[in-house]
């Protein structure tokens, strides 16, 4: 379904599970988990069906960011972290959601970090999964070289330094398999993703080059779980450690997953989902 969040902006939203469930003589309200996808330029489909296993703990809301996937197209001047971060609040207002648990994967983690900075009291909890706070090109290049040798480093440097259709296509064909350390549990998942390359190139050439998200994390007012695969080449471990250190000590939690790449819930679901379950339930 599409939800109007104001200003003529309609987002594609899919809701999994009830928010109220029978519990003896009463109706018990489950927390709402909002899943924000990566990219930019991708859609929410990568979360499915893996995240369905959390449905006993939380009502799950998936959506496609403004301009992405099945959400309405929007002009390029709205392809910014401020717009995407504020959309979380607008979407919650439209759906009547209070104190959500917000999970951002990769680029969704960029959005979640800006959301913390702009709306620090809005969430009940935040999960930052396989994400970064800056371009961090040197770290990326070193990580890709460790995973795939000099050719992987060269492809990564070409795309992240000079984003274009040609450099992206060469990069994606040459290094996509290095993002993860295990074969995809669902090899057809990528073919289901709706891709908007224009948004990706616009963001990488622009806002991504000077991301600078660490300072805003000091404003956090709720528990924040940082999840990182220790062999993630595109959002390296060092970035996650920086993010964790920037969050106020009383709110920060860190989960490191050895032998894991981009998305611990992809490469080691047996370890990652129990961590998520504990964080949601505590």
Précis, in short:
By secondary structure, the chain is an alpha/beta fold. Helix content is 37%, strand content 18%.
Radius of gyration: 18 Å
Count of DSSP H/I helices: 9
The assigned CATH architecture is: 3-Layer(aba) Sandwich
Strand order of the largest sheet: 1-2-6-5-7-8-9-10
Approximate helicity band: 25-40%
Q: Major β-sheet, in short?
A: 8 strands, mixed
CATH superfamily: Alpha/Beta hydrolase fold, catalytic domain
SS-based structural class? alpha/beta
Q: What would you call the shape?
A: globular
Any idea how many domains? Answer: 1
Order of helices and strands: EEEEEEHEHEHHHHEHEHH
> End-to-end distance, in Å?
31 Å
Assembly of the depicted chains:
single chain
CATH C-level: Alpha Beta
Number of strands: 10
Overall pLDDT: 97
Would you tell me which CATH topology applies? Answer: Rossmann fold
Share in β-strands: 15-25%
Low-confidence stretches: none
Walk me through the structure.
By secondary structure, this protein is an alpha/beta fold. The chain has 9 helices and 10 strands. The chain has one domain: Rossmann fold. It has helices at 81-95, 107-118, 137-161, 165-175, 189-192, 197-205, 237-246, 264-267, 269-281, and strands at residues 2-4, 10-16, 20-23, 26-29, 32-36, 59-63, 101-105, 125-129, 224-229, 252-257. A hairpin with a 2-residue loop joins β3 and β4 (26-29). It starts with a strand and ends with a helix. This is Alpha/beta hydrolase.
